[in-house]
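> call design_seq(struct)
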């Protein structure tokens, strides 16, 4: 009986955040839709300013759960972001939590409302949010799919592709693909300040034999199964990045070779004292509740108010249904 209670409490840890994050989605979409209509006759800069702010509110609530609620320790290495910049964020991809790592860095630069993502096609069909996310960019995972040490066929295919292309074979990351990175850089180079080359490692993602295992999923992360996230940042000025696609392909692979060496040090260093950390000094970066709690209270409060009336509940349900259908239609048209 005690074991059942423990297991139940463990599952509740992720059910509550998931319920709030999904449950407030119609409220967010209604607020965004209302502003979209009200701002139709205004200059686009007014719409964009409020849209960014609304997006920041929702993403701050996401971070309330993924940082403050879980109590995860964030350790930053390398070139620590200080000032708000126009950047492309390149990172290794290993977990469904990876997109939140970009938020973790952005909020520390007061740039959370400006984060945009390149997503896999399948994610564009995400109810309510898919059509919104699919128009976003800046955060790129060049591997194209998540690295999972248990999927040996995927890793072998990636390594075979690198060998076929005459590129060094990588161990802890997949061979990066150039297309999204090149398109993003070419489109944004006139406005870009830098590229952030970000390498992420989740502490605790090794088995009893010391071998790397699958990184935590969102549900596992919200169940507080990851005590620390190690984030290494290299800031690369845009003038140091080749613009021609073939040269950029080689440059991108070289960046992933550096990532691989960092992760080999993290997971496989023969010196136990050097494992579970990146080289160099780290900064323990704690996110203040002042940046996240207000967003949680605002969105959850508005949602609760909406659900307290019959008319509000009907509007809430219709937003889920019609918002999803309209979003899917929009994605189909854009495809």
């Amino acid at each position: 009986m005690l074991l059942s209670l423990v297991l139940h409490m463990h599952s509740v840890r992720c059910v509550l955040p998931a319920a709030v994050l999904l449950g407030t989605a119609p409220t967010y979409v209604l607020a965004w839709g209302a502003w979209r209509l009200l701002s139709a006759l205004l200059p686009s800069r007014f719409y964009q300013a409020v849209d960014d702010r609304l997006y920041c509110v929702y993403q701050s609530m996401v971070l309330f759960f993924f940082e403050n609620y879980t109590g995860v320790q964030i350790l930053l290495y390398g070139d620590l972001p200080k000032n708000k910049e126009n950047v492309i964020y390149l990172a290794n991809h290993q977990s469904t939590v990876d997109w939140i790592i970009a938020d973790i860095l952005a909020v520390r630069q007061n740039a959370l409302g400006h984060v945009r993502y390149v997503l896999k096609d399948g994610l564009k069909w995400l109810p309510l949010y898919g059509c919104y996310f699919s128009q976003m960019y800046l955060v790129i995972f060049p591997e194209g799919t998540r690295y999972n040490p248990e999927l040996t066929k995927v890793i072998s295919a990636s390594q075979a592709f690198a060998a076929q292309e005459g590129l060094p074979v990588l161990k802890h990351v997949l061979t990066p693909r150039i297309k999204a990175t090149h398109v993003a850089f070419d489109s944004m180079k006139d406005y870009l300040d830098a590229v952030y080359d970000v390498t992420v490692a989740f502490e605790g993602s090794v088995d009893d034999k010391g071998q790397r295992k699958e990184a935590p999923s969102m549900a596992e992360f919200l169940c507080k199964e990851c005590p620390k996230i190690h984030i290494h940042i290299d800031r690369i000025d845009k003038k140091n990045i080749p613009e021609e696609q073939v040269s950029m392909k080689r440059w991108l692979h070289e960046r992933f070779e550096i990532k691989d060496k960092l992760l080999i040090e993290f997971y496989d260093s023969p010196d136990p004292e050097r494992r579970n950390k990146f080289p160099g000094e780290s900064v323990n970066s704690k996110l203040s509740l002042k940046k996240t709690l207000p967003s949680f209270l605002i969105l959850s409060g508005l949602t609760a108010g909406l659900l307290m009336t019959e008319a509000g509940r009907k509007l809430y349900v219709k937003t889920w249904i019609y918002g999803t259908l309209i979003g899917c239609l929009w994605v189909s048209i854009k495809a």
